Amino acid sequence: MKTKEIVYAALFTAFMAVLGMIPPIPLGFIPVPVTAQTLGVMLAGCFLGKKPAAMSLILFIVLVAIGLPILSGGRGGLAPLVGPSAGYIFSWPIAAFLIGYASEKIWPKLRMWKLLTINILFGVLLVSLIGAPVMALITHTSIWAGLIGSAVYLPGDIIKAVIAAVVAFQLRAISPIEEKAH
Predict the structure, then answer these.
(1) Dist CA 122 CA 129 (whole Å)
(2) Cβ neighbour number for residue 24 with a 10 Å cutoff
(3) 71, 32 in Cβ contact below 8 A?
(4) At what angle do helices 50-65 and 3-19 cross, to 10 degrees?
(5) Are 126 and 91 in contact (CB under 8 A)?
(6) Is the pLDDT of residue 182 over 80?
(7) How far apart are CA 28 and CA 18, in angstroms?
C-alpha cells in the first residue's frame, strides 16, 4: 500500500470513531442498537477502494479490542466483539473490501445507481446476513428469528447506502480509486 492509502485508511478509522459518537438507538426487542457506523463502512468501500477500506475497518476493530470506546454508545473492549453485535462488527471489513472491489470494477463507467446497488448488496444485505445469524447464535434464538428481527435495520441502512453513494459519487475526483483508474 502507498503512504497516501495508509493515511486514507487511518482517516477513515478516525471517521468511524466519530460516527461512534452519535448515540445508538436501542431497540427493545433486539439486542443490537441502530448505529451510524455502517455508513462509514459503505463510504470507506466506495470511496477508498478494497485494500484501504478493509484495512481501515480492521484497524478500527483492533482499536475496539484494545479498549478504546469508539463503538456507538462509547463501547469498547472485548465484550462487544463477543456479544450480540460481534457478527455485525466482524462483517465490516469484509463488506468494505467487497464494496471497494466492486466500486473499483465499475469506476471507469461510474453511475450513482451502480454505487447504490453495491452498497445495498454488500453494505446492507451482506452485513445483515453475517450479523443476524451470529446475533441469533449468541442470544440462543433461531437464526430465522435473527434474520427476521434484523429487517428492522433495513430502512435506515438503505438511507445510509444512499448517503454513502451520493457522497462517494460527489467526491469521485479526489477518491484514491480515481488515481488507480488513470
Answers:
(1) 10
(2) 18
(3) no
(4) 50
(5) yes
(6) no
(7) 25
Q: pTM of the entire structure?
A: 0.95
pLDDT tens digits, 95-120: 999 999 999 999 999 999 999 999 99
CA-based nearest residue to 136, from 76, 77, 73, 86:
86
Query: What DSSP element (H or E) covers 115?
Result: helix 112-118
Cβ atoms of 153 and 132 within 8 Å: the answer is no
Place of cell 431497540: 27
Distances (CA, A) of 58 to 6, 54, 91, 113, 182: 12, 6, 10, 28, 27
Could you tell me the three cell numbers for 83? Answer: 456479544
The DSSP secondary-structure symbol of 182 reads -
Closest CA to 110 of 169, 166, 53: 169
Q: How confident is the model at residue 2 (pLDDT cuts 50, 70, 90)?
A: confident
Q: Extract the C-alpha cell encoding 165.
A: 453513494
CA 174/CA 75 separation, integer angstroms: 33
**pLDDT tens-digit map of 62-79:** 999 999 999 999 999 999
